[in-house]
Amino acid sequence: MLYEIAFFIHIIGLIGWGGITTGAYYLLTLTRPKDLTFLSAYRKLVYLEIFSLISMTISGLYMWKVIGCPSWTYYAFFVSPILGAGEYIHWRLTYVEEIEGFFSKMRYLSIFYTIIAFFLIYDMVFKPTI
Known about the structure:
- The chain is mostly helical.
- It is built from four helices and no strands.
- The chain has one domain (2-126).
- Helix 1 runs antiparallel to helix 2 (38-66), helix 1 (2-31) runs antiparallel to helix 4 (99-126) and helix 3 runs antiparallel to helix 4.
């Protein structure tokens, strides 16, 4: 029962980490607001993203322990600190002084997140062993 709850938290965390802020970023990219006032609202979504990443890490650690510590999960553990650094950069970008600086730097960060997401999906689906 606790494993199923942890799995649910893990999947909801994935949606919170990858879905909500990605949608907000693409909405901002399409509408291209001219002032920086939107960044305070976007920053709240980044906090949600950070919380989601933390909940994914904690639930992932619990599930890893329950299923017997399989080696294919080590790739995800390796990526976790890298994602934490990416989230720190993401959070800092919400304090930029010019709008174009935010969008140009977020473009690179979104490519980084896309690569990491594909890597994690590959890890979850194919479960390569070390």
